[in-house]
Design brief:
289 residues; mainly beta; Methylamine Dehydrogenase, Chain H; four-stranded antiparallel beta sheet; 27 strands; 0% helix; globular
């Protein structure tokens, strides 16, 4: 819990030590912008995807490139399964134009399954076990695809606006959507049944992150009435637990590995560390502007 990793628009991967104010560059580069990255849960691998139509797997200890796969379109996001055996990549063209999904073995990047996303798909996400792929369209619908069977599992028409964000729980049993109709919804992943629905003022770049034990999730956004106040909900009941506070939109929220602390980053040029047992005030604020 004392390091943060980030990627720059120049294609460089950085390691930050929370105990010092400087970043340590890591020699993990692409020939264009790095759009997404993920770290294996054992800390041995980093996978990156970029606008150079390339997926790269990096050996963290030796800081060298272990394996590379080329793609048809830009790599919009990469997601590792919890057991570190599967990698799901989503390809896209520009912003809000997802085109394709692929599941690879990890770390060897052998293609296991792949499929095209419907025209007008704007957002997509994979469950941590790699079995379900959820994607939202411009007609406000959300479809869940079974990657193992390579067939549609179900379609949801509960939303009254575009789905801005999708996030599965760590155990893959539920997922949360954030919609332009200012609602956050939780669904049973197996059936698509609505668990609960709560008000959330998010209009642009809305996201959700779960605690590692899956007992709570936090929703946050860069633009909207709740842009400065990320909200934590109980995953079982939907009860509001607490709110964080920033002076502007929030772009990232992370839980520490032991779920005792939260880290939030905002457009107010601060990053904050919070003690979940006493969320009244941050225990540390980093000025990053």
């Amino acid at each position: 819990g004392d390091k943060i990793f980030s990627a720059t628009i120049t294609g460089t991967f950085l390691e930050w030590d929370l105990n010092t104010p400087t970043a340590k560059p890591m020699i993990l580069t692409h020939d264009a912008i790095i759009n997404s990255y993920d770290l294996s849960h054992d800390g041995k691998w980093v996978v990156t995807g970029g606008k150079d139509k390339k997926i790269s797997v990096w050996d963290v200890n030796n800081l060298n490139e272990y394996k590379t796969a080329t793609t048809q379109f830009d790599v919009g996001s990469v997601n590792l399964s919890l057991n570190n055996k599967l990698l799901t990549a989503f390809e896209s063209v520009g912003v809000r134009n997802s085109k394709k999904w692929s599941v690879y073995s990890f770390p060897d990047l052998e293609t296991k399954s792949t499929g095209e996303l419907p025209i007008n798909t704007i957002i997509s996400q994979v469950s941590p076990d790699g079995k379900l792929i959820a994607y939202g369209n411009k007609d406000n619908s959300l479809t869940v695809h079974n990657a193992d069977l390579d067939q549609k599992a179900y379609r949801i028409n509960e939303h009254n606006g575009w789905v801005e964000g999708i996030q599965f729980s760590p155990d893959s049993n539920m997922f949360v959507t954030l919609c332009k109709d200012s609602q956050v919804r939780a669904f049973v992943a197996e059936t698509g049944e609505l668990k609960f629905q709560k008000k959330f003022g998010g209009l642009f770049a809305s996201k959700c992150t779960f605690s590692n034990n899956g007992k709570m999730f936090i929703v946050f956004t860069q633009i909207g009435t709740d842009s400065g106040t990320p909200i934590a909900f109980d995953s079982s009941t939907g009860d509001e637990l607490f709110r964080l506070r920033h002076e502007n939109g929030v772009s990232e929220v992370y839980f520490s590995s032991d779920d005792k602390y939260l880290f939030s980053g905002s457009r107010d040029f601060t990053a904050k560390k919070w003690d979940i047992s006493n969320i009244t005030n941050p225990i540390k604020t980093y000025n990053v502007g």
